[in-house]
Amino acid sequence: MKWYELYDREHEPTEAQIHDFIATPLFDALDGHLRQTYKVKPKLAYSGCKMGGDDWMGWNIKYKKSGKSLTTIYPKQGYLLLLLAIGAREMNEAELLMPSCTAYIQELFAVDPVAGTKYLAIELRDEQVLHDVKNLIEIRVKTKKGG
Question: What is the pTM of this model?
């Protein structure tokens, strides 16, 4: 059963239900890293967006720091899909990071930007990709407005 079918707009999932559905230690590793490193608390939000198919529908988990989105997680069975935006201010540093990233992340990063931002839809299924995600999020946190 799909995530958005299990938990519709009127039935917000608990943290335990989210963990049970995703069922991968990679979620715990990313969630713990974001909470501890950046002192952020995740917030649940519901999306009925069907534009990109059903991957983006249902309850998602948003991580923000000082009003800036770090990432949004879309629960999937056995893995997680996350959206990471790389804006114009972060682009140079992200480009410098790319040679050390997995081929998968490099391929995602090769897409053309939309209004100066690259939107990376990342399937988090292994430790190497988790490492890349952490590094890309660090770039987002370091890059302040106006700088």
Answer: 0.90
